[in-house]
Recover the amino acids of this structure.
C-alpha cells in the first residue's frame, strides 16, 4: 500500500475509490437521478438484456451522466425484449421496447441528454399499484 | 476496477452476526458464484443497520430492498429470484406492524424516516474492514484539513462553536474540554477514547466502533493535533471482541497508509493509537477510574480536581471523550460548525444515538436530532408498544438515569429537558416499559446492577446502595412500611450528595424518580400488600375462578410442582402453599379461569 503523503494524495485516492461505493451513494436518493431499469426476466436475458444493461452502465459512465442502472423483473412485454424503463427526475417513467445497442445509444443521446423522446416507446396501457 | 451492478449489504454487527449473518454472506457469495454473477454483484459485510429487532438484515442496492429476518437457507432464493430474475422475495420483506402493509424500500420505513444519521453516517453503508470504502466517504480528509489549514486553537474554537457536548452522559462541552487540555503545559499529553460502554441494554458505541472505526481514529488524531498529544489510547472492554478486531484492522490499515504514525500528511505531526482492554467494570467508564485502570492500577475513581485535562494518564494532561462524541468530530470539521449547530435545540446541538430496548416494537439503534419529542421516538421510530399494551414509562440514562412517564411524552430530548424532567441524557440507553412492569421491581433491577458494580471505595455508594436495595427487597416482599418510603428518599439523597464519583452520585436516581412518578405503586406495595403490575411474586397469588374453570385439567397437568388439584370437569384449586408462581397455568388455560391477584 502506498503511503498517503499529502492531503492532495488523499483527495486523489478518494476520487479513485469513489466509484466503489458510488452505487450506494446514489441509492440514498434515487429520485434525484436518471433511472434506467432493465427487464431481466428469462425472456429479457435471452434477448440480450444483460448486454444492454452493461452497455447502459458503461456508456452512461463514459459520458459522465449520473444515473442508476438497475434490473427489474418481467414487465410483460416479452414480444419486445429487451425492454427498459427510463425515469428522468420529475417526469413520468417511459418504457422502451426492442432496445438494441444502437437504440440505447440514441436513448442516451436524445432522451437522457436532451429530453427528446425517440421511437420505440411502448404506450402504457396498465396501472401500477405503486402509483395509486 | 470491477464495477458491480448490485451491492448486497449484509449486516455484520454483533447482533446479526450472532444470528448467523456470516453464514448468510458466505451462502450468498457461493450462490452468486454458481450463477456466474461474481463480477456483477458485490457482497459486503457492513456495520449495524440499527434495526436489530428484524435482524439479520440484508439490503440490496440500488433498489434499496430491505430483507429482514433472513436465514442462511433463504440465500438461494434471494440470489435466484432477486439477483437473477429481478423479483423481490416478498416473504422476507418488512411488514409494517401498525399498518399491516409490506414496505420493500428502507427509505419508506417509519423506523428510518425521522432519523438523522450523523454519528452513524457510515454504519450499515460501508465495509468497516475496508479503509478504502471509508476514504471514499471522506475519511481522514478532516484530519488533512486541520493539519494544513487550521491552528490547534482554531480546531478547539470550531468544536466549541458547533456546540458539541459529551455524548457519554454528562454533556460537558467538548470544545471547551479540548481547549483546557490544549492549554495544560507539558510535552507529553494523551488522547483517550472511552469505549467502556456499560449501561445495561446500551450498544451505541459498540455499533459505531464495529461499523465505522475510522471515524473514531481520525477524530482522536484531530484531538491530538488540537491539544498537542501524539499518543492515543482506546479503553475498550474485552467483552467487545468484534469491535476490538475491527479497531485493530482499522489501526493497521491507517498506519499502512501513513494516516497514523509519524509525520502525518508530510507535516511534523505524529500520532498513533493503542488499545487498552478493560475487564468490563461499570465504574471504569468514569474517567478517573478508567485512567487508573489503564495505568494498571485498580479501577477506582479519585477525587476531581485535578481533572484529567490537567493531570490524567500517568499524571499527564489527558483528554477523555466517548466514542460517539469522537464520531461527530470529522463531519463537524468537514461541514463546519454552523452546519452541525443547525441540528438540535438551543443548548443541545446535533444528534444523539439511542439504543431502543424493552417493550417496544422496533428494538434497535437510532439516531435523532436533539429536540425530537419522546413520543416520536417511541411511537414513530419505535413503532409503539409491543402487543398493543399501554405505555407506562421509559428509562433513559441507564442505572444513573431516571424514569419518564406518559406526561413526559411531549418532552423534547435534550440535555436540559431530560434533566428537568427528572432523568438524564446518559450515554443513550432507552428502555421502554409497559403496564406489566412493576416500577419497584425496575428500580430494584437497576440498583442490583449498581450494588454489583460499586467499586466499594466510598461508603455512601458501597453501604448506602446496599441498604437501599434491602429496603426495596423488603417492599417487594410486601413487608415494607410507609416509613421505609421516606427512608428510601432520604438515604437516596444522601448517597447522591456524598458519593465520590458519579456512579454513586447518580445510582439512587432510578429509585428517586420512581418514588416521584409512581408513588401510588409503592403505596400499593406497602399498604395494600399488592403489586399492581403483578410482577412482585411475593405479593401475588394465582387463583382459579370457579365460574370460568371447566375442569379441562390442562393447568394441573402443566403445573411443575403439582400445586393444582381437582376432578375432571370440575373447578380446580391452586394450593398457595405449594405454588411457585411460575405462571405456567395462566399460559395453558384457554378459558381465562386463572387470574393473578
Amino acid at each position: 500500500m502506498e503511503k498517503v503523503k499529502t492531503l492532495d494524495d488523499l483527495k486523489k485516492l478518494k476520487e479513485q475509490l469513489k466509484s466503489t461505493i458510488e452505487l450506494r451513494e446514489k441509492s440514498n436518493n434515487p429520485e434525484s437521478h436518471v433511472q434506467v431499469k432493465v427487464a431481466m426476466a428469462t425472456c429479457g436475458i435471452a434477448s440480450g438484456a444483460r448486454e444492454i444493461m452493461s452497455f447502459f452502465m458503461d456508456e452512461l459512465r463514459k459520458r459522465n451522466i449520473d444515473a442508476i442502472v438497475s434490473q427489474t423483473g418481467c414487465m410483460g412485454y416479452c414480444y419486445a425484449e429487451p425492454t427498459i424503463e427510463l425515469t428522468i427526475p420529475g417526469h413520468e417513467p417511459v418504457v422502451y421496447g426492442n432496445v438494441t445497442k444502437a437504440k440505447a445509444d440514441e436513448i442516451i443521446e436524445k432522451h437522457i441528454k436532451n429530453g427528446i423522446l425517440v421511437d420505440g416507446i411502448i404506450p402504457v396501457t396498465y396501472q401500477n399499484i405503486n402509483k395509486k | 476496477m470491477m464495477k458491480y451492478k448490485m451491492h448486497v449489504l449484509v449486516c455484520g454487527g454483533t447482533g446479526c452476526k450472532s444470528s448467523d449473518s456470516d453464514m448468510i454472506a458466505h451462502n450468498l457469495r457461493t450462490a452468486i458464484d454458481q450463477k456466474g454473477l461474481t463480477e456483477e454483484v458485490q457482497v459486503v459485510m457492513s456495520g449495524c443497520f440499527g434495526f436489530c429487532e428484524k435482524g439479520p438484515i440484508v439490503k440490496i442496492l440500488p433498489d434499496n430492498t430491505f430483507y429482514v429476518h433472513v436465514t442462511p437457507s433463504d440465500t438461494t432464493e434471494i440470489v435466484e429470484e432477486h439477483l437473477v430474475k429481478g423479483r423481490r422475495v416478498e416473504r422476507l420483506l418488512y411488514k409494517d406492524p401498525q399498518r399491516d402493509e409490506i414496505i420493500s424500500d428502507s427509505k419508506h420505513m417509519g423506523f428510518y424516516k425521522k432519523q438523522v444519521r450523523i454519528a452513524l453516517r457510515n454504519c450499515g453503508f460501508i465495509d468497516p474492514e475496508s479503509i478504502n470504502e471509508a476514504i471514499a466517504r471522506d475519511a481522514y480528509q478532516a484530519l488533512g484539513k486541520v493539519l494544513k489549514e487550521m491552528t490547534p486553537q482554531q480546531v478547539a474554537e470550531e468544536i466549541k462553536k458547533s456546540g458539541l457536548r459529551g455524548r457519554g452522559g454528562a454533556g460537558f462541552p467538548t470544545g471547551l474540554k479540548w481547549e483546557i487540555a490544549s492549554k495544560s503545559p507539558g510535552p507529553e499529553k494523551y488522547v483517550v477514547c472511552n469505549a467502556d460502554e456499560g449501561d445495561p441494554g446500551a450498544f451505541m458505541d459498540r455499533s459505531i466502533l464495529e461499523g465505522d472505526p475510522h471515524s473514531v481514529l481520525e477524530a482522536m488524531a484531530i484531538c491530538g493535533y488540537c491539544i498537542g498529544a501524539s499518543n492515543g489510547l482506546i479503553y475498550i472492554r474485552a467483552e467487545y471482541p468484534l469491535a476490538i478486531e475491527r479497531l485493530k484492522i482499522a489501526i493497521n490499515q491507517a498506519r499502512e497508509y501513513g494516516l497514523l504514525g509519524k509525520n502525518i500528511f508530510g507535516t511534523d505531526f505524529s500520532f498513533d493509537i493503542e488499545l487498552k482492554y478493560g475487564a468490563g467494570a461499570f465504574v471504569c467508564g468514569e474517567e478517573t477510574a478508567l485512567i487508573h485502570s489503564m495505568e494498571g492500577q485498580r479501577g477506582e475513581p479519585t477525587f476531581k480536581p485535578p481533572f484529567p485535562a490537567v493531570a490524567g494518564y500517568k499524571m499527564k494532561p489527558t483528554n477523555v471523550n466517548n466514542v460517539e462524541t469522537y464520531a461527530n468530530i470529522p463531519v463537524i470539521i468537514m461541514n463546519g460548525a454552523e452546519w452541525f449547530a443547525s441540528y438540535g435545540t438551543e443548548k443541545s446541538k446535533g444528534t444523539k444515538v439511542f439504543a431502543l430496548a424493552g417493550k417496544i416494537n422496533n428494538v434497535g439503534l437510532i439516531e435523532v436530532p436533539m429536540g425530537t419529542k419522546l413520543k416520536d421516538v417511541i411511537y414513530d421510530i419505535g413503532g409503539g408498544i409491543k402487543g398493543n399494551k399501554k405505555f407506562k414509562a421509559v428509562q433513559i440514562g441507564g442505572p444513573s438515569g431516571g424514569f419518564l412517564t406518559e406526561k413526559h411524552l411531549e418532552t423534547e430530548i435534550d440535555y436540559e429537558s431530560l434533566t428537568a424532567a427528572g432523568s438524564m441524557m446518559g450515554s443513550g440507553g432507552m428502555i421502554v416499559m409497559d403496564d406489566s412492569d412493576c416500577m419497584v421491581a425496575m428500580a430494584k433491577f437497576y440498583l442490583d446492577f449498581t450494588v454489583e458494580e460499586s467499586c466499594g471505595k466510598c461508603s455512601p455508594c458501597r453501604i448506602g446502595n446496599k441498604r437501599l436495595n434491602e429496603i426495596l427487597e423488603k417492599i417487594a416482599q410486601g413487608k415494607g412500611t410507609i416509613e421505609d418510603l421516606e427512608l428510601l428518599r432520604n438515604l437516596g439523597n444522601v448517597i447522591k450528595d456524598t458519593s465520590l464519583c458519579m456512579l454513586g452520585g447518580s445510582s439512587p436516581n432510578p429509585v428517586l424518580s420512581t418514588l416521584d412518578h409512581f408513588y401510588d405503586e409503592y403505596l400499593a406495595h406497602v399498604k395494600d400488600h399488592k403489586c399492581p403490575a403483578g410482577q412482585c411474586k411475593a405479593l401475588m397469588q394465582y387463583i382459579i375462578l370457579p365460574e370460568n374453570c371447566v375442569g379441562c385439567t390442562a393447568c394441573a397437568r402443566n403445573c411443575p410442582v403439582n400445586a393444582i388439584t381437582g376432578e375432571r370437569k370440575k373447578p380446580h384449586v391452586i394450593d398457595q402453599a405449594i405454588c411457585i408462581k411460575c405462571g405456567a397455568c395462566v399460559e395453558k388455560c384457554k378459558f381465562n379461569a386463572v387470574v393473578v391477584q
